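Example for tutorial group B:
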């Protein structure tokens, strides 16, 4: 039981693992926010991150399911 995590370049370079893509053991209640924390990002960092689950935008606190593909991207906004 696992999820696939992809960190986009800026996040990968700042992460604890420095990996672009990796499998992570799934557990009940796992969220994108928890994955970010495990990779060394704090709450303030998470404000600039966009979670994409199975190619659809999601929230950082939505529970992940076994087999999900999670992409963590830098959320860039402009005006």
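The residue assignment follows.
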């Amino acid at each position: 039981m696992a999820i696939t995590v992809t960190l986009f370049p800026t996040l990968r370079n700042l992460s604890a693992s420095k990996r672009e893509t990796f499998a992570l053991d799934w557990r009940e209640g796992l969220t994108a926010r928890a994955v970010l924390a495990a990779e060394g990002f704090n709450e303030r960092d998470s404000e600039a991150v966009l979670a994409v689950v199975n190619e659809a935008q999601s929230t950082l606190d939505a529970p992940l399911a076994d087999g999900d593909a999670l992409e963590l991207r830098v959320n860039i906004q402009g005006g």
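The CA atoms of residues 15 and 25 lie 18 Å apart. Compare this with the pattern of hydrophobic and polar residues in the output above.
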